[in-house]
Amino acid sequence: MSGMKVTRMVIILILLLLFPTAAAWADPWQDYRRAGELEAGDPATAESLYRSAVAAFEAGGDLINAGLTWQKIFRLCDRQGKLVEAGAAYVKEAALFQQAGVPDWAWEDTARGESLKSMLRLFIPVPDPGRITLAKFEPAAGTYLGLYEERGPAGNDYNRVKDLYGRQHALYLGYGHIYGPGNFVLPRDTMEKARQVPGAGLVLALEPNGGLGGLREEDLTAIARELAAVKIPVFLRFASEMNMEGTNAWHGDPAAYVSWFRRVATIMRREAPNVAMVWNPFDIVQPEGVKATALEYYPGDEYVDWVGVNFYSDYYLSGRADQPGAGLDPLQRLDYWYRIFAGSKPLMVGEFGIAHTVLSPGRADVSRWAAFNIRKFYRTLPLLYPRVKAVVYFDLNESDPLYTQAKVSDYRLDDNPEVLTAYREAIAGPHYLEQIGQKALGTYRELEDHMAIRGAVTLGAAVKLYDPFISRVEYYLNGELLGSPTSPPYQLTIDFNRLPGEGSLVVKAYDSQGREAVSRAFTIYGSAVPVAIFTLGQKSYSSNGQVQEMDVAPLLENGRTYVPLRYLALALGVPEEGIGWDPASQTVTLNSAGHILKFYPGREEMERDGRRETLDVAPLNRYDRVFLPARYVAEALGYRVTWSPARQQLLVTRE
């Protein structure tokens, strides 16, 4: 027999070699070409064929063609209005091109793809930010408010900022220029105005406009000594946006840039101890593999105190109608840099603005979009990015004659009432700091599945949808809707002392049309101690921690859990003599703690202290016992009922 088995195995192996499986026979290119033919007339079938082809490409390790096929799926889903699926397809496309070493192949789809990505994350407040080594001038918690106000209404007197915007700001941005050896200009007026604000500091963007070859250590030493004489904290953004090709004179030679940044840092530490060095690239809307090229310019942790990043939220990117930017969440622009650096450095948003008026490709008022995103950015930032410790808003209209770059957007705060109100409200919270040296009282941590939570906790949600507007976020605890906040960061206070043991928390976000767009479910553990526990199908139950026995078990009927009324009443403290049954009128009476409750098997009503109330189901008469859903009795006597689907248990706690 053993010889026959060996022979059969050999034959099977030969057949497998001669006749491959159906998957091996499949030609992904046949599906790919057929999908291309069907895209216009039968997009659903085309998508299915593309997905079949991409599965084969991925299985064969063909990253390039898998990425190209996901690109087809992304664009096809986008055209069909299947925005969630399109966003997921873009994520696959970008990841595969990144793996294949050609991240720029996703560049054309980046703006739209990033717009369609969906995300929902929950956060809870914590008093301690954890153990981190603080950098120079870094607050333990909180974010410094910063402003570029040279062309704004408080440009002549920064002490007016609080009256205008509701909060004083801790940082003021100014620009310095080095045009060549011995030829440099510092923003001395800005420096003096910042010095006049109690507790304020200066953000100095020092630009070597004459190129790195025009720098001299003696000039940098003179600059350092002048900054030291100001005697306020200075955040020095030396040669910012070095990763921007074609827009500055210091891009293109990473080795020279790193060398000069290190020399500047060394000089500042020797001559100006009030200066913190900020390495500050620009976030270009590109795949992450392309963003990473900026890291070639990183001087090293030893020479960098803070990492900054500049970006702007424009309704159209670079003023191009074919590059809409309205769906890009400004918070997304921080994500890559935060993941790379937050473990070692505090981050600063060195320049930032949200356009309320489009100047190019055609003038348009987008105030509602701007106001929504200003509120969302400032209110959600503390949750997502607690180590972003400074944000500098760029209060400028790019049509200003003194602004020499592309005139695309108007970012001003004061000239638009809707935007001004949004900004004042967004920065009003205690997380935002008005002086260097202040700190907030706490920070946030992300809610994790299977987390234990005690007491009343205010949850907040960071939400990103394919729709730039979010209508509401709903919170459900064990299936019960607790609330639906409508404004970022969609906070809701939940008392987890009312949750005994394990529970289900489900959070749903809805787009501007009221459609559910994304949801997440968490298993959590509350801190309430159950007074009673009944388990479906089991004749034992728990009452105040003691196991008791019943002659019947809780049962399930029409999707509802019914418990035997007598044992429920005993578990909730109703004395034996307080439980009565009148067979003539078919009435159960409970008399406890000054309340009289009456129930009638087969009738959808009860009587509470003489008042009739309607029930959604009638008590049942089974096995010579009366059964009913526990909440009717529990809530009438001051208790709360929770259902644990995982354990099939009904838990009763005190209100």
TrEMBL record:
Name the UniProt key words of this record, in alphabetical order: Glycosidase, Hydrolase, Signal
Q: Which residues form the signal peptide?
A: 1-26
Q: Does the keyword Lipid metabolism apply?
A: no
Q: Does the keyword Cytoplasm apply?
A: no
The residue ranges of the GH26 domain are 67-423
Which molecular function GO terms apply here?
cellulase activity; mannan endo-1,4-beta-mannosidase activity
* A Pfam short name: Glyco_hydro_26
Residues annotated as the enzyme's active site:
E241, E351
Please give a single GO biological process term from the UniProt record.
substituted mannan metabolic process
Report the Gene3D superfamilies cross-referenced here. Answer: Copper amine oxidase-like, N-terminal domain, Glycosidases, Immunoglobulins
What EC number(s) is this enzyme filed under?
3.2.1.4
What is the top-level taxon of the source organism? Bacteria
Which residues lie in coiled coils? none
Q: Which PANTHER family match?
A: GH26 DOMAIN-CONTAINING PROTEIN-RELATED, MANNAN ENDO-1,4-BETA-MANNOSIDASE E-RELATED
Report the family membership: Belongs to the glycosyl hydrolase 26 family.
Recorded protein name is Endoglucanase H
Question: What organism, scientifically named, is this protein from?
Answer: Neomoorella humiferrea
